[in-house]
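dumping these here so i dont lose them again. two proteins, back to back, each one seq then structure tokens. dont judge the mess
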Amino acid sequence: LAGDEPIGAIVVMSAPPRPLNDKQLTQLKTFADQAVIAIKNARQFHETREGLERQTATAEILKVIASSPSDTQPVFDAIAKSAQQLFAANSAAIARCVDDMLHLAAHTALSEAGAESLRKLFPTQISGQGAFGKAVLTGKPAWIADVETDAAYSEEFRQGARERGSRSLLAVPMLREGAVIGVIGVTRREPGVFSDHQVELLKTFADQAVIAIENVRLFNETKEALEKQTATAEILGVISSTPTDTQPVFEAIVRRATKLCEAVSANVFRYDGEQLHWAATVGWPADILSAAQRAFPAKPNRSRVAGRVILEKRAVQIEDIRADAGYDKDLAGGLHYRRILGVPLLRSGEVVGVITVGWAEPGPIEPRHEELLKTFAAQAVIAIENVRLFNETTEALERQTATAEILGAISSSLTDTQPVFDIIAERAVALCRGEVSVVSRFDGALIQLAAIHGITRDGVDAVRNVFPMRVDAETLTARAFRARSVIHVADVQADPSYQTKVAAISAGWRSGLAVPMLRGNEVIG
């Protein structure tokens, strides 16, 4: 008796029938008390030893958790090893839930044959067949006392258990905020139920596995956030240091996008409303890159991801470019990336460019990578806007300065137009980024040269040779006289009227702009 609770019995028998006397009965009770003491001592010893083993295992696992904040694998391996030892188990395994599948994360077994049979089970569909599936579906511990006699299991399941040498199984779910994210299980060669103590022990291991997963998740999120902030700061630094040029910004973006997205390549394209222009790239094979860049500028189309982004005005993902019927097959066959993500550069709702990133292997694209690329896209737009505003401000200042200089020349030479014409010609070349500028006047019969400014002496001489000219001549100047309006020739060589006129080509210009000087409705220059 342990208190009032019977925990066993001592029985003595004799061949001839005779009763026990009081002395013998007292002696037997003494033996019974000694047996109880022995049982209690043994139980306490085993409990103490199990408690020590459990604490030792917990300490070892916590130590592994602390030493591997960025990797769960060492923790899972340590948990599986400790679970097998403490349960005297045939095998121990940890599986992670990914969508509706269980993926093996760590395992131990007494034999390589058993380990190989266990590995063949994964990845597996989550179902009610087996303790693992039950634990995931119910969110509670599940066990099988004897696979051979439990009618709930198929012969195929029993055969697999025999290969692994398993008769009884226990599995407990790994829970994070009430959701099952995995399962840990042990098997034994002998049939039998698992005690509450054993269930609680496996729950402890499951909790430790969740701690490891959370630690790694938080570590990686913190690391990614820091890397993102560092990249953002770097790109903003480039933006502030190059207010007149977007190229260094684009190059910094493709470098950072490739690294932070763990990709193999990245590109930035500009879009002018009609055509895509290749702006920056990293990670492309030199031979393929050279051939691909020769195709730009190009109108956007659906054969490439950048074109799809322009046409759809949204982020576009292709999980496998080789399996995409509409993707450029020649390009897809030569590239060393398979999946690709493109995001638009949006300014006031309009696409002004595209960033693309490519990965070597096909498959789904993580949402965090799309968000990261959208951040880079926003920074690229900032860079474009900064350069545009800077250039507009610079041009406005240059225009005001030029206007002031011309007004100054007018006020200082009231009796002579030549200084005014000279400075107008000079300023027109500078502000329009031209090659040569001409001011002409009409004397009533012919158009006379009034002033000229050019970058090269040959260009200036070639233009001088066509003056004076008739109003019906096929020149840019004469056309503006006749039309009494602005004349723009986009390409002299493509204009039939200019094909026989060598003066413009000799002067070194291909496109021209002429604006008439009007007094009332009369053209005077």
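---- next one ----
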Amino acid sequence: MMTIPMKRRLLALAVAGAVGLTASCQDFLDVNTNPNGPETVAANLYLSPMLHWMATGQQWDGRGTAQYSQMLTQSALSTYDAHGPNYNTDFGGQQWRDVYWTNGQNLIDMMNIAEAEKRWDILGAGYVIKAWGWLQLSSIHGNIIVKEAFNQGTFDFNYDSEEYAYQEVQRLLDSAIVYLGKTDGAVDATYMGRGDKMYNGDRTKWLKFAHGAYAIALSHYSNKSSYDPAKVIAHVDQSLASNADDALWGFPNTSNDDRNFQGPTRSNYTSYYPTLFMVGLMNGTVFPGAVDPRMSRMLAPSVDSVYRGLDIAQSIFSLPASQRPMNPFGYPTAPPPNSPGIYLFADQVKAPLMTYSQLQFVKAEAAYKKGDKATALAAYTNGVSSHIDFVNARNRDDNQHVTQISATEKAAFLANPAVIPASPAQLTLSMIMTQKFIAEWAWAYNEAWMDLKRYHYVDKDPATGEAVFPGYQIPTTLHSFNNGKLAYRLRPRYNSEYVWNEKGLDKIGGLALDYHTKPLWIVTP
């Protein structure tokens, strides 16, 4: 059972106990009247908390999913390095909590108020937020509860299929696009901007975000006969037009909860390290002879000045101190509070939800599969180039202790045919997907893991016969629950589902120890 219904159980008990009280007692016990606070909340004030969790929920759950995708690994082989489950724990359940509880009824209320007041811009943003929630949850959990999600009349909840969830995502985004295109009624950027600290009430940027979310959702169908690359491209072309449209969430950095979850002061990633896979994409191994200038701005070298990633099967303590990779903050151990970080692991960096470079790689993959390699190469080049600029911009957010990538460095890297092919015919699927992985490193944990799953971790690039993701390490030791299989989903949030909703889980096989290895519907033909 989900968290909101549990709260309502408690409320129902309180109401039942009060039925026999006198009228005077009822006045005293009226929990729905707060003399010290407003009875209703302005629609724009709902936005900030929701946007905060849209940006940071992946950071919380990324502590596990980043190990599945091998963006990061821990100091020694962990449950998630071994593709094990989030079993009997709420670890990996933050986004579940965000969608069903933090947003939950609040999102419904915001949309109802916005509709009643004809604030089409806020209503449109509400449809985007709801679609985004279902998309993110389904991509990491598979089956989720949609139809009965906020049904106050039941205590047991049935799960819906992934197919239905994806259909609902598209339906919601269709509505969002309609409302965000309206300029009548009480549409007001200044009013919306008081709560919208991502786009400051700019509905045109929200409209682009909606198209970007649509493109990402449709790209997940790449293994299905219904996959339509032309439609993916069309939505990308109506989405973010440059880095200026990136969806970014800033942190005031005034108290613990207002600092970046991935920053050094909160120290949530102290025992994590870049992997051999990640470093191999940037040190000239996968792109021969092309040392990526982003590597020294996204990562820190070992004490001996060599950039290293950690083998997922190796304990960092088995290495000489001078050869141990640094953690994502750029230190061998936990740094003192308020220390400077690196890239997206800094206290006051702007956390991305969606970027122009990410969507250019979505377009490049779709065009490649469509057979339009000229368009694919152009989008791919845009993706690499714009991500270099993105790295520079994020390293300025909190005055991190790294130098900017110079125009000369950038030009030389883009001129290297190992990175940017001389002709469209030389572009490969592996180039597109690995450069997308670099662009999504340390923030788009859900999407990066989805890409690995869409290519079943070890699928071959038809043009080269080599792995689409070269260097990805299949664990030599898988978790004992796995029965020799790799992870394809997180288990639903333990405290709500496995404690309160076992009946619903049993119907979808969610009680099986190896449920996390069940392939997602969206990645199967």
